[in-house]
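The authors assume throughout that readers already know how a fold can be written as discrete tokens. A single example would do more here than another paragraph of explanation. An entry of this sort, consisting of the sequence and the corresponding backbone structure tokens, reads as follows:
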Amino acid sequence: MDEILELLKNDARLTAEQIAKLTGQDEATVKKAIRKYERNGTIAGYKTVLNQDLARAGHSFVRALIEVSVDPQKDVGFDNVAERIYSFPEVRSCYLMSGAYDILVEVEGDNIQTVSDFIASKLSPMAHVRSTSTHFLLRKYKEDGHIFKKTKKQKRLNISY
């Protein structure tokens, strides 16, 4: 991977000036490369990784992973079904995958009922969707390389005889 992309992947807040210093390139070259990556879609966007438990303190929030089995369509495979799935606002991420299921969908909702309503009324009845398997996420320990809750080292009690 390009050195500029690697640096931005790890910290999107880096300025072109900082990247130039880290890579030994001039700032104009770095800015030009970043603009090119943004225009051609290599850089799809910038985001902040949030600890949702802290950001939504006091508000309910549920995230689920849904495995979807799909009948592929002639000449387009899974793409049309995936496009219809990821167009719903509840869907955070959507992946084609190998294994027992074809598509993995990450969904967010205010509570379990809103997620299950999405599955029952929008996802499951969709044409070419054969079956789904839903897994509700209970706790997030790490996302995109960021650890959210550091585990405390257990102190062993001294035992003497």
Q: What stands out?
A: Residues 52-140 form a domain with the Alpha-Beta Plaits fold (CATH 3.30.70.920). The radius of gyration is 21 Å. The chain has a mean pLDDT of 91.
